[in-house]
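Known limitations

Files may contain more than one protein. Parsers should not assume a single record per file. Below, a two-record file is shown to illustrate correct handling: read the sequence, read the token line, then continue until end of file.
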Amino acid sequence: MPRGVLICGAVIIAVVLAPGLPPVRTVVITAALVPEMIGIAPAVSSMTARPTRESTTYGAPRDEMHVYLPAGARPDMALPAVVLALGVHPQPIDHPDIAGLAEAIARVGVVVGVPDSTALRNLQVTPAEPGHLADAVLALAARPEVDASRVGLAGFSAGASICLVAATDPRLAGRLAWVSAFGGYADARRLLVDVATRTTTGESGEPVDWQPDPGIRRDVLELTLNALDDAAQRVVLRELLGPIVDAETRPSTPPVPERMTGDGVALYRLFTATERSSGEAAVASLGPELLAHLDGISPTPVADMVSVPVFLLHGRPDTAIPVVHAPLLRAAIGHEVGRMTIFGRFGHGQPGSAGLGLDDAGDIIELSLFLRDIVAAATE
């Protein structure tokens, strides 16, 4: 029997037999979505009409957003909706992978918004970004086809963290219905230490080795330098730290160049730290403005203000954001967390992108249960 058939069968059994016996429609939608999302079979596409895609703008500065409308959508239908937040350095919003995901969701009767962000595309994450994402939610909620009280947010990677901060925007009260956060970070200060020192922490808080992806190391360096006000020091730090970040082995800690001052010194010490404690001390020595910048893009400082159901998803093998951030988010958000799923084999990318085998069945079942809860939150 083909592996795809076995896995599809496991998906349906898991969704149907899970506690709570969800309504039939939720089971059917979930069982159809999962195989399509992981590339097993075009279950939704083969049974439903293709959505229409429109282009609009949102926010200030104005950015583009693609809106996917289910076939036959009318202004009086009060459909549920979701905004997809793609994170830093995202694929173009018309990329086939992004369009395919948005179309699959729209085919089951949900209006989908895929906003672009000039700032994120240029590796700039500022405290203004969550508000910009909230602008996208408001723009989608204002469409005549959408029930303004049933709009969700689904974020990936840094987009997941931005979603959680955006969820506390007072303008979304009564509009935002739920948040899904896949592979997000809990605290930007901590993530800097994780990536710069190539360590994370174990269950008891002890430092453990962790190897972030080389692209993530470069992106985090660039994101951090872009937050530094001193343009001259940005140029110097980029020249000095680029080779260190790119190297697969860490050099011995070089002395701080005399031309470095203020936050430049702290960032140099951070990205040349060979121990986690040294990295933590370097971040703690940053000036108040840069620390406020990091806190403004972190979910944990505002987690107690999240008042909608949250669904957390993370991969244990994640080489972009350590898996420890998921339980930190759950602890900070508290009772609003409806489900936290930790994959055993899937990492930071799209599940199934590296191929699938029977060893992945457990993760696929967990993904199915996760999606079942989101489908229920969005459509019931």
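...continuing to the second record:
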Amino acid sequence: MPGAGQVQVLVDGPLATVILRQDGKFNAMSRAMWRALRDAFASLPKSDAIRCIVVRGHGAHFCAGGDISEYVSFRFERASLSNFHEREVWDALQAMLDCDIPIVAGIDGNCMGAGLEIASCCDIRMATAGARFGAPIARLGFPMAPRELDLVMRAVGPMTARQFLLEADVLDAHRMHALGFLTRVVGDAEFEARVQQTQQRICALAPLAARMNKRSIRALLIAQAGHAPMGLAGAAAKEQPVLDCLVAKAYDYADSPEHREGIGAFLAKRRPQF
């Protein structure tokens, strides 16, 4: 049924869990789910109340791609097709990219197309050994939208992006780990425990430092993407203003409670309380 599926947000103390769910379709993303994903990230508090977000699929799969049952209703007209990719899909992905809170992807089963794009927005990506990755949309007769391709290509690398899109190939978790897309691959039996350990480690660390690191990484990646075709000298010249802006605000945390607590706890040989 068009518009089926949902994105659930569960909050437990400093942890938020975002669950992609569409029963019977391996959590394929419907248009309503893209809008709900955007709203989920846009509505998260800007304070330090949430320190870690885990994105995962309901049941045995992360996300099998887009909900193809909806495609006939909008894909064959240029304006509606453009609106889907440039507004509905990209607004959701941009909301994830703009999020200053560390995001962990917990990936099991299929992580295809839309799922690969969502995972590409996450900071740490964990998967079971049985997870499968790809974007076999050439079988459906259309290319990947440019913004989405840029996102995926930066996450998986140009050669793997070509393999996904030109061969419609599907890779396993160990191969994606070797390529640098996955942070770690774990067995099915230990997957839940390892996801919990990761989120607990993040939640125990300084939230201000995490947010500042994410902002700096985001700004530098944007700067690098903007001058990718240029030679090294030109690239350095273009990147310098971004670095100057970062340096101008880089040390505003000097007198912050977190900074004092972290250093003080180390010197006192105790666990910091952030």
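Parsers that stop after the first record will miss the second one. For reference, the second record is described as follows. Residues 227-236 have pLDDT under 50 and may be disordered.
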